[in-house]
Amino acid sequence: MFSSLYAGNVSATDPGAPYYRPRRLRRTPALRRLTAETRVTPDRLIQPLFLREGITEPREIPSMPGVYQHTRDTLRKAAVDAVNAGVGGLMLFGIPEDKDPRGTGALDPDGVLQVALRDVVAEVGDATVVIGDINLDEYTDHGHTGVLDDSGDVDNDASIELYAQVAVVQAEAGAHVVAPSGMMDGQVRRIREALDQAGHQSVAVLGYSAKYASHFYGPFRDAVESSLRGDRKSYQQNPGNIRESLREVELDVAEGADMVMVKPALAYLDIVRLIADHVHVPVSAYQVSGEYAMVEAAAAKGWIDREHIIDEILTSIHRAGASQIITYWATEVAQRLGR
Ligand code: PBG
Fold it and tell me: Residue 241 is part of which domain span?
């Protein structure tokens, strides 16, 4: 085929052939820019932010240097900084002062996450997308993502009833999107029903659809002062499984998820690619706390080039097919991209 195009005098595998020189397009910055296939832009980055009830100064999370448990004031400021940098979305988490077996703080219209949502929406309005995490694990004294039955197992159907109530209070507090992260069966359907019944048809659902039982969440559990002992293997997925992610994502889309998520990101890029090829809704990837901590720790040792590593990883996640990336570096990277 090539030989007919090129008058029969060269071979497609001859590195000296005139057409066989990919380096031509890498020669100058302008050529590289023109031919770049993947570019991370601020608008696809989502910044997670934590509001901690009952503190008067922000607290840095020890295993996530540079990430804070915010006060109401510093949360507002962090939201404004993110918006000014052009960040596409904010994912809010609340850390209550008191925990109980049923995670009641998650349902309280004046609970910490609802306060955070109201403050942030009042501050930045529709200038970015404000997302609430639906879960009970920050609020339960046992640290599980739902309520327990008599035998101590997480009770699926009782938990999704509570998620449905959480979704409605978050929508009422101004969330544009709610993101159920509990991995309970049927959670998206139940949340969609509850939102619609309460008149919140336009609030979107971002399913944490393919969420693995990962040790990369370790530092997050510090961040939210999780009281979990044990693990989440009876509801989060086995890291070795692929087909299970397809099933979870198909179910979430059928149940009405407007967007789906793969989590964690870097160790699961094959899953991101598979899901992106498979569904026709936006696919988000969550670059989780352990991914953040590893880079920060190695950078603090001077072992890696921090900024370039961050950019390379985010580019890789986007290249794998994620249209949104949830990352603790969102504001920083957006600021850098805007310079
Ligand atoms: C659940 C939730 C978790 C994360 C986001 N939402 C923790 C978990 O499932 O144990 C992890 C995020 C991260 O590690 O950065 N509320």
Answer: 41-337
